[in-house]
Amino acid sequence: MIHDWQSELDRAVESQFSSLIQLRRHLHMHPEPAGEERETTRYIAHWLEEYGYDPRTGPDRRGLLADFTSENSQTPCPRVALRADLDGLRIHDGKQVTYRSQVKGVMHACGHDAHTALVAGALSAIRDLAQREHLPWPVSLRGIFQPAEETCQGAREMIGFGALEQVDAIFSTHMDPLRKIGHVGLRRGMLTANCDEVLLTISGRGGHAARPHETSDPIAAAAQLINAIYVSLPRLTDSQDAVVVTIGQISGGANANVIPEKVQLRGTLRTLDRTVRDQTLKHLELLADGVGSTTRTTITLTLGPGAPGVFNDHELFDLVRHSAREVVDDNGLDALSRPSMGSEDFAFYLQKIPGFMLRIGSLAEHSQPTPLHTPEFDIDERAISVGARILARIAIHWSNPNRTVRKTPPPRQQDTGT
Question: What angle do CA 370, 372, 374 make, to 5 degrees?
Fold first, then answer.
C-alpha cells in the first residue's frame, strides 16, 4: 500500500507538539548538570513509555536507550540511531519566563532540553506511522539520550553501555540561536573543533600580603601567564590557523591578606588541526616555563577531558540535505562555510560509525539573538517541530532498502580526549 508518508509524519509530529513543548519546558525548569541527570532520565523514560517504548536506563541511572523495529520487517534491517543530550550548565537562568529554571545556578543554556524533545518527537512519530501502516518500508531505530555532553564524558559512557551495538549510522542536531527559525545549517566534513580542557597549576611560596618580597606569588604569576597566553600565543601561531585558548576559571587564595601557595587556571584549547593542536600545547608549555622562571614559581600543564572535532560524513550529506529540504525547502538550507570553534562529544560516536550533525535555526523572527552558554539563552520552540520532522525523515530515508548502505566506515580522527 502506497501512502504519502511525509504528510502523515508531519501530522504525527504536529499532533504531539504540545506534549513535546511540555517535555522541553519541564526539563528547562528542572535542569541537572553533567553527572547528575537521574531525574531527567527517569522523566524521559516515563514519557517514552507512554508512547509505547521500553527504554533501557544507562549506567548509574543516567542516560537511556530506546529501540524500535517495524513489525513488518521480515529480515533484520540496518539500524539507525538518533542522539540527544541531557545535561544542563552551571549558569543561573536570567530569563523572566514561566518555564525558567527552578534550580539555582543551573540551566539549559545550550539547547539540550530541545534536542531531547525533538528526538523524542521523531521516535514517537515513527512509531505512530508504523502502527498506522504508513511507513514506506521497515525501519529499525534507536534513540540515544546521553548524559554529560558538556564534560565530554557521556558519549563514551553510552558507547561503553552498548549504544552503538548493531547501529550503522547516527544523526543528531544542535540548536543555533543565531540562525532564524525555518533555517537549517549544513556542512560536510569538519563541523566543530577539537577541544582539550587545560589545567595550569601554579605553585609558589605563600606569605603575608604586606611582605610579597618574601614569597613567590602564584597570583602575580597567574596574571602574567594569562596575559602571555592572550597576547603572545597569537604571535606564535600561523595567522591562517584557527586556535582559541580561553581561561574560564581561576582558583586560588582564601584570605585578603594572605598570598597563597597555589593557583589553578582552567580553560580550553580549541583547534581544527591536530598538528596545530600539538604545536599550541608546546607553545603553552614554553610560556608557562618562561613565566615560572621569572616569577620563581613552578607551573605545570595538565590536559583534562576533551573531544575531537565532529566530522560529518560526506556520503550522508545529500541524504541529510534532501530530508531537510522536505521540511524547510531550498530557501531554508544554509551552507556553513567554515567549522565552528565550539566542540561536541557527538564526535566520539563518529569515530565508530558514520554520522551527521545539523544545526537547527531557533531564533524567532524579529527577536534579538540569545547566544549559547548565556543566562538569557532561549529558543523559538517551533524549532523542536522542525528538528523532529527532519530527523524522522532522515531515519526513514536512510532505511530505504534501495539505498546503498556502507558497512565499513572510513578512518576517523584520533581521539583527543585523555
Answer: 70
Residue 368 burial (10 A CB sphere; 0-12, 13-18, 19+): exposed
Return the bridge partners of 267, or none. Answer: 198, 247
How many residues are given for the chain?
418
How many Å apart are CA 357 and CA 405, to the nearest integer? 18
Looking at domain 194-307, which CATH architecture does it have?
A: 2-Layer Sandwich (3.30)
**How many angstroms separate the CA atoms of 159 and 345, rounded?**
12
Residues 350, 170: Cα–Cα separation, whole Å: 8
| Choices 1.10.3880.10, 3.30.950.10, 3.40.630.10, 3.40.50.970: CATH for 5-192+309-398 | 3.40.630.10
Q: What is the per-residue pLDDT across 156-213, written as a single tens digit (0 to 9) for each?
A: 999 999 999 999 999 999 999 999 999 999 999 999 999 999 999 999 999 999 999 9
Task: Identify the DSSP state of 33.
Answer: B
pLDDT digits (tens, 9 = 90+) for 100-123: 999 999 999 999 999 999 999 999
**pLDDT recorded at residue 76:** 77
The answer to whether 58 and 157 are in contact (CB under 8 A) is: yes
CA dihedral 79, 80, 82, 83 (to 10 degrees): 80
Sheet holding 298-307, edge to edge: 243-251, 262-271, 194-203, 298-307
Cα separation, 312 vs 355, in Å, equals: 6
Q: Cα-flanking dihedrals φ and ψ of residue 112, to 5°?
A: -65, -30
What pLDDT is attached to residue 404?
66
Measured between alpha carbons, how far is 133 from 127 in angstroms, rounded to an integer?
A: 10
Q: Which residue has the cell 501530522?
A: 11
Q: Secondary structure of 53-102 in the HEC alphabet?
A: CCCEECHHHCCEEEEEECCCCCCCCCEEEEEEECCEECCCCCCCCCCCCC
How far is CA 210 from its chain centroid?
A: 47
Q: Which residues of the chain have pLDDT under 70?
A: 1-3, 72-75, 404-418
Write the burial class of residue 104 (CB in 10 Å: 0-12 exposed, 13-18 middle, 19+ buried).
exposed
Domain boundaries, the chain: 5-192+309-398, 194-307
